[in-house]
Amino acid sequence: MKIIGIFLALTVIYASLGVYGFAQDGGSDGGDIYQLGNKQIVIPPPQGFVEAASQIPIIRERLDGGAAGGNDFLAAHVPAEHFQRLKKGELFDLTFYTKVTVSKKLKTFNAAEADFALFVDTFKKSFPALSDPNSKEMKAVLKSVSENLSNLNKTETTLTLSQPLTVGSIEDSRNAYGIVILFQVKAIIGGKEIVRTLVNGISAVRVKEKIIFIYTYKAYEKEPDIAALQQFSKQWLNRIIAANSNAK
To answer: How far are the Cα atoms of 28, 50, 110, 113, 243 from residue 31, in angstroms, in the given order?
Structure first.
């Protein structure tokens, strides 16, 4: 249950930081390799995306700065054209991006298929209650994120979320599970209100006996955005699984 709670909490944190991180601040195609315990995990970028957090400090600061301490940040990807703009110093809201994290408690744990199955089962049962914006757990998360963003933005920042609506499935197999949710996030930054609607892919994948968390985010403008993110997320999950199946 603690791992499930961390998973959901960090989903909220990353959505909030990613969307509002830039507005207030007037590897190779084969993927990068990460050492998780006794295993080396390959994280290839999605097609047309670039791993940006290791190359642009402000991206890592904004996407990782609100972490509650339960997860380790591994990677963040943005479209190649956005990456070039960011490299030039442009600052703007991220409207399409990804994140990859791993639970600190699971980093050195070799998870069997049965462990992953238990994780998924618990997630399915717990998600409605834990994702409720009025729940004790979510209120604590939002308070923490708001405080962190206030420090980063150097002005008082408050976040609120709508109840997420599950709008699709990404994967449900023995080594991968993911859903697509739709929700609205409202930020009050220095007295100015900003409202965004996001499509968010939340996934977990087991590769080389390690469980990693995969997040995809896209600003929602119209209904086809849901199917687009769903397909994008599924293709990327398959790419990650294939990269680690072939890697030694």
So the answer is: 6, 9, 22, 25, 8
